Predict the structure of Peroxisomal bifunctional enzyme.
Amino acid sequence: MAEYKEIDSVAVIELKNPPANALSKALVTGLNNGVKRAIDNPRIKSIVLIGNGQHFSAGADITEFPRVADVTSKQGVSLLTVGDVIESCNKPVVSAIHGVCFGGGLEIALFSHYRLAVQSAKLGFPEVSLGILPGANGTQRLPRVVGFEVAMDMIVSGKPVSAPQALQYGILDKIVDGDLLTAAVQFAKTLNTVPHDRRLKNVPVPNSENANKHFEEKLAKIKQKQRGYIAPINCLKAVKASVDLPYSEGVTKEFQLFMELMSSAQARGQQYSFFSERAATKWYLSASKNYKVSKDIPVKTAGVIGAGTMGSGIAVSLLTSGIPVILVEQDSKNLERGIELIKSILQGGVKLKRMTQSQMNQILQILQPTTKIEDLQSVDLIIEAVFENLKLKQELFSKLDKICKRDTVLCSNTSTLDIDKIAKSTSRPEKVVGTHFFAPAHIMPLLENVYGNHTSAETIATVMKLSKKIRKIPVLVKTCHGFVANRTFFEYSQELRFVVEEGLLPNEVDDILEDFGMPMGVFKVNDLSGIDVGWRIRQEQAIANGFNLTTNTRYINGERYCAIADKIFQAGRYGRKTGKGWYQYDKPGGRVAMVDPNVNNIILNHCKELGLTRRKISTQEVIERCMFAAINEGFRCLEDGIASKPEEIDTIWLHGFGFPRYRGGPMFYASQVGLRKVYERIKYYQKHFPETSHWIASEMLQRIAESGRNVPISEWTKFNPTPTSSRL
Ligand SMILES: CC/C=C\C=C\CC(=O)SCCNC(=O)CCNC(=O)[C@H](O)C(C)(C)COP(=O)(O)OP(=O)(O)OC[C@H]1O[C@@H](n2cnc3c(N)ncnc32)[C@H](O)[C@@H]1OP(=O)(O)O
C-alpha cells in the first residue's frame, strides 16, 4: 500500500492504491510505517512522498466513509496521526505531486514541509461536494499558506487549482520539469533541517484583516446560490475559525463541524451521488456487450442537423471539445440564425473568461455551416436535432442512410420517440441510437443515450465514449416512449398539475418544490421549455393514439386528464419567450417570474366550469404526490428493463433536472423515506385517485416493501418480477 525505498540519503515513500491512491486505512498505516522507518534510520536525511500511477492521491477513501468511526477514530492510524508524525518529523518531508492532489491528499501535502509538483498537477479540496469538509486540519492549514479569502474560495467551492496557480498562491514551492521523482530527490538532498515556519501550525493566517466582511458576503452568497446545502456553510465556518482561534482550538472547531456533516443525511446523499454517477456510466447488456469489452468508433468529425436552440448547443459541445462540426440547416436564413446563436454562446464563454477571443476564433474555424445535407457523406457521427416529429425524423434518417458512409453512427436527439421506429427507416438499424441532450445543451451535464433493439454494442460504446469526451455524464437506457427522463418527469409534473386543479396555485407549488431543493419549480420549468412545446407533444400523442384532445377533456380512456395547461396555451401564453405563461415576465424572454392574476383566473374558472371544490393541500402531500409518482414510474422503468439500476434514474434526475444532490436522486430519496412507507402512501393515493394509473404500485416496489427487510439499493433489482427484461 505504501512502498518504501531509499535513494542515497533520501527515503522515498510511494502511495500505492490504484486507481487514484485513495487514502484507505491500509494506505495510511503504510504511510505512517514508512515515515517512522525513515525517522529511525540515521542514514536518512530527508523524505519524499510521491504517488504511484496517475495521481498523488484522490484523498480519503470514500468507500470507507459509511464507517464514520473508522474515519475519525483516535485509535489506530488516522490521517491526523500520520499528519502529526510527518509535521513533527525533524527530517524534511517533501510531497512530490502529479495528477490530482485532493482532499486528504492535499492535507498530507500540507503536513509536509515542502511541496513540488509537475505543471499538469491539480490541487484542491473537493470535500464540499461530498457533503463534508477537509477534516484532517485542511481548513486550518490552507489559510495559513494562502490567506483567508483564497482558502475560503477554494474550500467552499471545492474547485481545484492548477499547479501554476498553486505556485502563485504559495501552496507549491516549485514546479518541476522532467522526471518528478528525480527532481524531488534532488531537491530533498539540498535540505538539512526543518525551519520553524515550515510547520504550518506555527504560522499565522496572512491577509485576514477583512475576514469578517468576506465571511458575511460569502455566507449570503451560499444561502442564495446553494440554498439548503449545509456543507458549504460548515466549510466557511471552519475556515473562519483559522482566523478567530489559535491553531489548537481551530482544529477542535474543525472536528466538531466535520462530525456534524459526516453524520448528516446530506453527506450520505452527496456521497451516494458520487458513486451513482460513476455506476451509471458502466453499461452492461451481456457478457460480450458491455463497457469493459465493447470497442468504440473514434469520432473525428461530426454532423449536426438543425441549428435551432438544441442543435446549436449540441454543436457548441462538440466544437469546444475539438470535434469539427458540419452544421446543416434547410435554408440559409435558419443557418445564419444558428451560426449567430453559436457565436453568442461562445462569446458568453469569452465574457466569463472560460476561453479567449482567439480560442473562440479557432473553434469557429472547425465549424462548417451548410444547407446541403450531402456534405455529411463522410462524417463519423451525426446528431439530428430537428423538430420532434416521427415522420420528419424517419424521412431524414432514410436520407442520411443513403448519403452517409456505411459506418457513420446516426444519432437522434429525440426526447420521447421510439428509437426502433426511427431506425426502421434505415438499412443500418445497428448504427442508430438516441442521444437525448437537455436544454441548454452546451451547459446541462446529462446525456441520456438510448439504445434500440438493433443498436450494436459498438454504436453504444461510441456514444458513451463521445459523451465523456464532450464532458457530459452519460447514462444508457433502453428505448420506449419518453425513456427514463421524460417518463418519470411526466408523472411528476402531471401530478403537480392535478394539485393545481385541486387547490394550489402554480407559484405555491413552485415554492414548495424550491424549498425541497429543486432549482426551479415545475411551472417555471414549463415556462422556460415552452408551453407550446408541451401542448404539441400532447396533441401528437393524442393523434397517434386516435383521440381528440380539447380544453374540455377530463378523461382519456378512463384516465384523469387536466386541461389547465392547454387553456394556458389557448390564451397565447407560451412561456418566457412570449413574456407570459404560468407566470408573467417583464418582457418576452424575461427571467423574473411574477404571479399573474390572469393565470389564477384561468385556473379558478376551469375549476368552476368542472364543478371542482378547491381545498388546502399540505406541503407534505405535494412532495409525496410528485415524488412518489416519479419513484413508482422509476420502479416501472426498472421492471421494463428501460433502466438497469436505480443509480441510472438518480443520475438522470441529478444532472437532467437539477434534483438536489444532497438528496441523492428520487430513488435514493425513496430509500431514505423507507420503501415500506413509500409503498403504503402510493396505495393510499391509489385509493383516493383511482382514475390515475400511475398510483398502481409497481410490483417490484411492492415486493421490496413486503419483504420486511430494509433492502439496500444495490439489491433492489433482485426483486424485479420480470428479471429477463432487466439488463443485469
Ligand atoms: C478525519 C477525517 C480526515 C480526512 C478527511 C478527508 C476527506 C477527503 O479526502 S474526501 C475525498 C476527497 N476527494 C475527492 O472527492 C476526489 C474524488 N475523486 C475524483 O475527483 C476523481 O475520481 C478523480 C480522482 C479526479 C479521478 O477521476 P477519473 O479519472 O475521471 O476517474 P473516476 O471514474 O472518477 O475514478 C476512478 C475510480 O476511483 C474511485 N475513486 C476516486 N476517488 C476516490 C476516493 N477518494 N475514494 C474512493 N474511491 C475513489 C472512483 O470511484 C472510481 O472507481 P470505480 O470503481 O472505477 O468506479
